[in-house]
Amino acid sequence: xxxxxxxxxxxxxxxxxxxxxxxxxxxxxxxxxxxxxxxxxxxxxxxxxxxxxxxxxxxxxxxxxxxxxxxxxxxxxxxxxxxxxxxxxxxxxxxxxxxxxxxxxxxxxxxxxxxxxxxxxxxxx
Length: 125
Description:
Layout: E1 11-15, H1 25-33, E2 38-42, H2 48-58, E3 63-68, E4 71-76, E5 86-89, H3 96-111
Parallel strand pairs: 1-2, 1-3
Antiparallel strand pairs: 3-4, 4-5
Helix pairs in contact: 1-3
């Protein structure tokens, strides 16, 4: 098996053309806080789950995030395509701390450490 030294270990984030990356800026902050690199690409997908699943299967870290139609999804390569690890709907009205924890959880999935809660009832905003 040959090692490809040109592949950078990153979490891939796929978003649709109609989705503004400003909406999920706090997700990126969560990734940065956990010190896990990411790469953002614009592609056409019908759902956030589909985008996240394909991103996870393309990522060298086996973790992907999709942002489509005001929904963000976190997926892992070994999960069923229709079953993301976590997802948030109505992103534009979601509290920033929830989005930041969501991004942190994507990084924590890579690290193999326990997730932080993204339940709004458990988060002081």
